[in-house]
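Progress report, Aim 2. The chain analyzed during this reporting quarter is listed below.
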Amino acid sequence: MKPLPLILLLFTLQLSAQNITGYVLSEDGDPIPYASVYVKTNPQLGTMTDSLGYYSINLNQSTDNSDNLIISFIGYRTEEVLISSISSTQPLYTTLIEQPIMLEGATVKAKISRKESRKLKKDALEKFVAQIAIDFPERTAIYPIFSMYNGSQDNRQLMHHEVIGSITEHPIQAKKGGDSISLSVNSVKEYVTDEARVGYELFNEITDDRLNGKKNSKKYKNIYTKRTLDAQALRMHRFLWGGPTGSIVDMLDVDKTGKWDYTMIGDDAVLTYTEKENYMGIVKGELQLHFYIDPVTFQINKIAQSLYGELHIPFGYKLKDDELEFINALQFGTDTIDRYRVRHAYIEVLRNVFFRRIDGNVVVREKNLEVRGDLIDNKKKKLSYSAEAKVIVSGAPNITKL
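Predicted structure tokens for the chain:
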């Protein structure tokens, strides 16, 4: 066979690389800015949509046409499109279906009778705990992830942050008092408004003033800690993941069946754990965990978590260092609420964890999170904040049983 002329060879290689353009729209036809568009098996080959919902990706020669293009945004159902079906000459229009972060079944509509429920609950709880020990033995799991985070203040979106990397679960280290989760970052993409950047600069100026005004600055260095945009966003990505799934049940009071409820929702049996706290009216909170399990095998399909908390600070009550740090971390705009005279705080956290089975292992498929709250200072000035996040496991995890 005669070798191809050099110019024809170059032309052939150029054709093998594909440029994909498109628009991402809502069901109402509105553009969705900052939507993530990337190749499924290579998340680093991707981009974000602009204010018009437009994107453009140059696929390299190694991209397999049988691969999928992933189009995703927080609060919407993720779409996958086969690359070989996408035209290189016409833009691809994709409509994302709204899928709010919510707790399905958090409100139980139909309960089983009390007597039957007690019996089923006791039996299901025992079998569920035993199955968790089987499905989540002591193991190290490394998950390749694509994680997204949006931060807003008073209904103004201030930042969008994406991380491509991996999450490692270390359950043994957690039992020894160490960190159960580590985040490794390969690449970061972010959109941040000027307002958020100014807000961080302002916060750091206040931090310097506070430290300089203290005779013993070392004592206060944990309270007035400088922050960066990346540090704030990465903290949210870690918070989104939570801890190793197998360790969740260890932290719950399994023996007190009165804290548990049992019902059927669709094809799933649902075990619900409720914990309430009230410390002299200063701190109030309620945690609910809904475990969606197979009623036959008792393997877990999903966890839906809701957490509601209130903080009411009496006059003269001094916040602890970690409480101050928590309140400070919630603020990233330029609003001038008095960070050190907050009198009331309200927070609501919703989190969903979805599971799948790979090679006999129960592993995480996706997690999403929504955080909303209000801070009110001594002058009754209110600041509202919210954050939404979503992490997609982009490949099979590497699991090592210990």
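The chain has eight helices and 18 strands. The CA atoms of residues 143 and 396 lie 7 Å apart. These observations will guide the mutagenesis work planned for the next reporting period.
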